Amino acid sequence: MSADLNGQDDARAAAGPGGGTLARLAAERATGALHGRVGALYLADGAVVHAESPAVPDVGWRLTAGGRLSPECWDEAVEEGGPDYRAGTFLVEHGRLSRGELELCHLSALFDAAFFVLSPLDATQRGPERFLSQARHWFGPVRPVPVPLLQREVRRRRRLLERAWPWPEVDAAPVVPVAGPGPLARAAGPTCGRRAVLEAADGVRTPLQIARALGRSAFATLLDVRRLAAAGLVRTPQAGVAPARAPLRAATAAAAPEVSLLYRIRDALEAL
What is the CA 130 to chain-centroid distance, rounded? Predict the structure, then answer.
């Protein structure tokens, strides 16, 4: 019994700030909103049905910034469907989106916001702990996500960021392009998404500001920036200072160029 409890505690700790509270609410099949300083998770019968965070573009911003909906269509859905907690359904019923489009966009926005709620960029911030029972979001449920699935996805995304480039300093700093990339960086070549990030990088915008400007996933933009840093295409602040979350990486300034070179070789090989 003790081993089982220890395993549960480890799983909750791995889920990040607020993970234990979220797991408890899921077990209780709770309905309401779990709030924190970095956003909120909305639950219905213990499953997550919506997530929002000021760090990421929401569903409306994604749909309008990408040109899929006009701002007028979105405002109509909020005004007409919002009071009855069915703004998403309104878009489908009035032919603005197909059901598949709605689910895809909503799930993408949900996972994106939930990542930053449960894994804030500022590691000193506490996770969401204030629960408002029976609270509902005006967008309405689309496709509920089980809490264990959401927590697994958060852990997977953390691993992706760590593997791409183990210096989290790039996550919150302005994205500064580096002129004249080396031959390995040119051989790997940025993907379409990373190219868009590079074009939007002006030395002032952070990754999250670039995501908002492009109307795309904040996590995907963060991952692109880390991969661009690994390829030597954007600057890494305080290069050579290994983060506390990467104890197995090289920790000295002298070792940093070697780590950078290895990451560029890896990306170049993956691109072949």
Answer: 21
